[in-house]
Amino acid sequence: MARNSIRLRARSSTQDPRYSRNGRYRKSTFSSTSEFTLIEVSQEVAIRAKAFGMSIIYHNRNRLPPQQAEGAQYVSFDELLAQSDVLSLNLSLNRSTRHIIGAPEFAKMKDGVVIVNTARGALIDENALVAALDSGKVWNACLASWGAI
Questions:
Q1: Residue 19 falls within a domain, yes or no?
Q2: Checking CA distances to 30, which of 7, 82, 113, 146 falls within 20 to 30 Å?
């Protein structure tokens, strides 16, 4: 799923469903120099993002050794939110990560960000995500699961 989401966004081949339903189209502002970001680095996803010419930044509890980071740049959580064009969540759900992405985090993101959640749905506050999608803050959300589990 993450690979396909990257492909769609990187090639700018998709259109915003809110616009297409109304007969209008929105051109993507995504470029090959965009930041692809990871929470809890997934090397396989990063390798695929690099194939599209994306630079990779990440946030993790601990900075990875250079050989594991494979050229990805470690940044703070706030920097990750502010710089992301595509934000991929690849982390486990626990008390500290439940709703790690909510209204305050969406407010720190660029307009038109793409969210890819290959992990548990409860990492993202559903109500905040719907509001972010409606407002255009989030351009697209690719979710492997949805809900409080």
A1: no
A2: 146
The contacts of residue 139 (CB under 8 Å, 6+ apart) are 16, 28, 112, 113, 114
If residue 139 lies in a helix (H) or strand (E), which one and from where to where?
Answer: strand 138-143
Q: To 5 degrees, how large is the angle CA 95–CA 96–CA 102? A: 105
**Residue 33 pLDDT greater than 50, yes or no:** no
pLDDT, tens only, 77-135: 999 999 988 888 888 888 988 999 999 999 999 999 999 888 777 889 999 999 999 99
The CATH number that applies at residue 69 is 3.40.50.720
- What residues make up the domain containing 53? 2-10+31-143
Confidence band, pLDDT 50/70/90 cuts, at residue 27: very low
What stretch of H or E contains 131?
A: helix 126-135
Residue that has been written with the tokens 């690979």 in this structure: 3
The 10s digit of each residue's pLDDT in 38-81 is 555 467 777 777 887 888 888 888 888 888 877 888 899 999 99
Cβ-count burial 7-39 (b if 16+ within 10 Å, e if not): ebbbeeebebeeeeeeeeeeebebeeebbbbbb
The pLDDT assigned to 51 comes to 81
